[in-house]
Amino acid sequence: xxxxxxxxxxxxxxxxxxxxxxxxxxxxxxxxxxxxxxxxxxxxxxxxxxxxxxxxxxxxxxxxxxxxxxxxxxxxxxxxxxxxxxxxxxxxxxxxxxxxxxxxxxxxxxxxxxxxxxxxxxxxxxxxxxxxxxxxxxxxxxxxxxx
Length: 147
Ligand SMILES: [Zn+2]
Hints:
With 147 residues, this protein is mostly helical. It has one domain. It contains eight helices and no strands.
């Protein structure tokens, strides 16, 4: 399924008890508005594109929030808790659109709904921490081991 074919996943973004800035960040990622390195390059900035978290792949919003091996570990923990196998979607938009928690029960559903938004927010904050504290340098060392 192509990302364009699915509707905008508003129900998975504007979730009760989630701080506005966290929901808004998810909204931005869904529209591809987050300034990841691939977008900065497309704007003409001359900089190397290496994910600040794994140091192996190029950074894009879909990589850093879903596919990055470092972030995958987080997703695996979440799905390990509920013993569910998740087919990892291509895009953030698809991830949110397919985020259904009917199997966790009504009581846990409220928490379940918050999980992707919290992961996105936490990962992005960590990414920025690394990016502005010499994450690139560290990534270059890691790059060596990735080849
Ligand atoms: Zn990565």
